[in-house]
Amino acid sequence: MKFFKLKKILSIMLFFACFIMTGQNEKPNIIIVYVDDLGYGDLGCYGATEVSTPNVDKLATHGVRFTDAHSSAATCTPSRYSLLTGRYAFRKNASVLPGDAPLLIDTKTPTLPGMLQENGYKTAVVGKWHLGLGNGNVDWNGKVSPGPLEIGFDYSYLIPSTGDRVPSVLLENHYVLNLDPEDPIKINYKKKIGDDPTGIENPELLRYPSDEFHGKTIVNGVSRIGYMSGGNSARFKDETVPYQMLNQARKFIDNNMEQPFFLYFSFHDIHVPRLPDNRFIGSTKMGVRGDAIVQMDYITGELVNHLEKRGISKNTIIVFTSDNGPVLNDGYTDQSVELLGTHQPGGPYRGNKYSAYEAGTRVPTIVYWPGKIASTESDALLTQTDLYASFAQLIGHELNEKEAPDSYGMWDSFSGKSKKGREFLLEESVTLSIRHGNFKYIHPTKKKASWIKDQKNIESGISLKPQLYDLSKDPEERNNIVEKNEKLVKKMQAEIERIKNNPMSRKVN
To answer: Which of 41, 193, 214, 460 could make a disulfide contact with 210, Cβ separation 3.0–4.6 Å?
Structure first.
């Protein structure tokens, strides 16, 4: 009799143990793989033939591949701001930040990692940051704060701004890694400090030339934006950074498998300077830009493999996407233009990074959740700004009225259950553009932005006159049909004005 009682007690205990474990794992892990400057046409699954990307293609084959999904802006800082806050970046006057800029996201602003943290998630950012750090006078030799840990992340391992800006170091949580206190870091973006050679003064030391803007302190054979002295033991080597980021991501996953986690894995590839590891050199005929794409694909595959080895891939959502459209020569003469061949980084679309044209924000977007999301292709009109509200929707978090005001709950669309996208979708560049179905309206502006054409050889897409295009017939945006569609133009212009004038712009879509 005692044996049966003991057996019953053990069965009850096992039931509750299973219940508790199920409760811990009922919320999926979430990973956003955020590639830098990857264009719509830069992957095999989006039509590329000159570069092989089997690992990302596998995600597309077994997930949802979107053909009309967008970064919120045509440059990286605004896109990252909108992704993490669910707010349009123009509300903060966000633009590409210098390397010593203060933290762009106010510590009181609700964020995606903060929302997930409140709902039981462990959160981490690993990779490129470029959203500012500190309060405007950073001491790189001490505690660097506020930063990611003050806006909802439990752990951070960062390139502080971008790889082409000093300081060329890695920052773990609040502190620079491997810093020798006897060799303190000094940074100046206005005048030269110290005795380090620069690209302008010592071009013979460069691995490849740069423009004058990128021609300041040389680190690892490449000149950067801004002047740096000291911190020699802390300076990163570009070729090893992707592996370091992968290792830290693996450690975070291993340390947080018992509860749901959120990982914002933010690649530096394929941003300049492009210095892929030797094992990838020659992987394509396109030079270092193509080789960096192959490196990015490898690292992505290794991250997915780690999830599978740990047995948690089926409870992990991966969103793979890019912060903006492609760019070739972005300050360095690395033969990305000369060796392009037949490759089309923006696919069939006009424009590039920085541009108001479609390739500025239409980027590869894949959502992968094995066993939970069916393999499909979707032409739903979506934006990264909606990821905040969509994940809140998925885990049952009700947004308050001040939280993620520009983000719509679109989880059914992101998961492929619905092909319905946004009625209107805002695109930010030098000006504001808006999509409505297949129509694209570019707001006229008096802003010049001549540097986009003069320095980058990119069409800005801006004009003193309004522009309207039917992308179903004219994906290259060559035929302006404003004059024949006055009513539609007024409707789209009115929607832009509504969004601009209403800081709480979320409404039923």
So the answer is: 214
104 φ/ψ angles, rounded to the nearest 5 degrees: -75, -35
Q: Which residues contact 135 (CB under 8 A, 6 or more apart)?
A: 102, 103, 146
Q: What angle do CA 473, 479, 485 make, to 5 degrees?
A: 85
Is residue 366 within 8 Å of residue 377, measured between CB atoms? no
Residue 428's contacts (CB-CB under 8 Å, 6 or more residues apart) are 72, 73, 74, 78, 82, 88, 89, 90, 361
Taking each helix axis from N to C end, the angle separating 387-395 and 76-85, rounded to the nearest 10 degrees, works out to 20
The kind and range of the H/E element at 218 are strand 218-219
CB atoms within 10 A of CB 86: 30
E strand or H helix that includes residue 264: strand 261-266
> Collapsing DSSP states into helix, strand and coil, what is residue 363?
coil
C-alpha 29/C-alpha 11 separation (Å) is 29
In the chain the first and final C-alpha atoms are separated, in Å, by 63
* 3 state SS of 59: helix
Per-residue model confidence (pLDDT) at position 502: 83
Report the pLDDT value the prediction gives residue 490, as an integer from 0 to 100.
97
Q: Which residue has the tokens 């978090």?
A: 397
Half-sphere exposure of 151 toward its Cβ, with a 13 Å CA cutoff?
Answer: 24
The tens digit of pLDDT for each residue in 497-507 reads: 999 998 777 65
Q: Does an H or E element contain 365, and which?
A: strand 365-368
Distance CA 91, CA 325 (A): 22
| Whole-number Cα distances in Å, 6 to 2, 12, 18 | 6, 10, 18
In 3D space, the residue among 64, 86, 82 whose CA is nearest the CA of residue 73 turns out to be 82
Predicted confidence at residue 401, as pLDDT, reads 86
- Partners of 225 in beta bridges: 165
Give the CA angle between residues 500, 460, 326 to the nearest 5°: 100
* Token pair recorded at residue 126: 């690993």
**Contact present, 239 and 221 (Cβ < 8 Å):** no
Residues near 312 by beta carbon (within 8 Å), at least 6 away in sequence: 29, 253, 257
- Six token digits for residue 232: 């020699």
Which pLDDT tens digit goes with each residue over 327-365? 999 999 999 999 999 999 999 999 999 999 999 999 999
Helix-then-strand count for the chain, H and E: 10, 20
Tokens of 301: 């595959």
- Per DSSP, helices labelled H in 148-287 are 241-255
Cα–Cα distance measured from residue 470 to residue 440, given in angstroms and rounded to the nearest whole number: 6
Helix axes 54-61, 288-309, angle to 10 degrees: 50
Cβ contact 270:363 at 8 Å: no
Whole-prediction pTM value?
Answer: 0.94
Q: Coil, strand or helix: which one is 474?
A: coil
Write out the two tokens for 492: 């789209």
> What is the H or E stretch that residue 493 is in?
helix 486-501
